[in-house]
Amino acid sequence: MDKIIDQCIRVEGGNPTRYLLQTNSDNLNQSEPFRKITFGERDKYKPHKTILMVGETGTGKTTLINAMINYMLSVKREDKVWFEITDDQSDRTSAHSQTISITVYGFYPQESKTDLTIIDTPGYGDTRGADLDKQIAESLLSLCKSAEGIHEIDAVCLVMMAHQNRLSDRQRYIFDAVQSLFGRDIAENIILLFTHSTGARPKAALTAVKEAKVKCAVNDKNQPVCFLFDNCQSETADEEDEEEDDEDHEPRMDQSWNCSFRGMAGLFKLLDNIKPKGLEMTRNVVQKRKQLEANISNLKERVQVMELKLNELKQTQAALEKNKEHITENKNFEYEVEVPYKEKVDIDRSVAKEAMCCSVCEENCHYPGCWWVSKIKWCSVMKAEHCRVCSNKCHYSKHVKEAKIYKTKTKKEKRKYEDLKKKYDGKIGHGVSLVQKLEEELQELEKEKIKLVIEAFDCVETLQMIALNTDSVIILLHIDFLIKKLKEINEPEKVEILENIKKRVGEGNTAALGYMTRLLN
User: What is the average pLDDT score of the chain?
Assistant: First the structure.
């Protein structure tokens, strides 16, 4: 114990005396959207466990992480010490730190038989907006892909307070968001950790979890696997805490330590026996989810432009029909149409800080959600150095990342028949009239619209097959728009598939969707 204390900074005296472990920090000024904090040296011959911690602010997740550290160091109540590995990011002011959404704690003490990696996700469901939650997804994806990153996970720990009898809309949203990140193979590795527990089984909280249809591991009685913890271990004990309780003749602080010790013993026994899951399917889910969001966002803009262009062509056709005599006599005439055009405008900073746009197609290829990478070719919508979203699939060098986006506007414009003929010079003749050529353009625009709508539908269908949370908020957020567009292109079977998704949406999904909608607004 003294050896550990020598490697610590004393934070506060008392019973217990609190110490902050002296750790090494990596990636603080580098390009990764996560940071690593490590204690000790990783021993490749030791068993190693990796867990992901998720919970609403105020549930005691930070204290729980520190409780794991103390359990692994075999700290007892009578030692009157408490070790901490966590720190507060709130006072970090660098540009990089402001984008960090997850912290990876590597805990490798010589005193423990097991090495542990804890992935902490502060800020999930934060009132700062849904964009922060997308950052968490991006961070986890980057972490999975990095050379020294996380390639398998032993447990996803959902943290909530034991006395809750219902899940708030925010919690439903958090759990939905987390489950939307993973492939369907991870369900048996999701476990519940109840904090602020008295040691009694949290029946109301478990009922709330079941009603919210939170997918998690179950025991042989088909009950959710859960562990209980009292978060008072690090609090300074006074004389009252040391006095025996009339009911069970055990001091309050002893109760706290014993409750948490039992919970930790159960948790680590499970970790010893649980089969870790590879993250390949999870990587696919996150990539497909990001593709869906980028496709839908770009689709909405392009459909808007197409429909305005269709309107322009129809107005041109109507003008030609109206002036048949002038056309027959080869006379020039003027007509008026409403035409779309693009203009760059400042981003709404409440939605996003930056966007990645194509200067050739004049399209917003990644907006919102393009927040981390400094180099455009690293953006998630790029593949083989080309954009997967913009109309012409342009090279990354044709893209810019800035606090501006393209916005489609319309204006009335007077045109001349002779200019229209010049535009199509060489494209008409051999029995093909100008009117027919305009019809062909209309049909090409409709084909492009159909292609985009089908691509977005395919993303939804893939997520339905591989994602743990098949009816996630991300899908529900866009489903009405897709249904409308599929009806327009006469795809009744695909409409029925999406309508069936809507029909099976439960109360939990609806509440989570409502919370996300409020975040976006």
Answer: 81
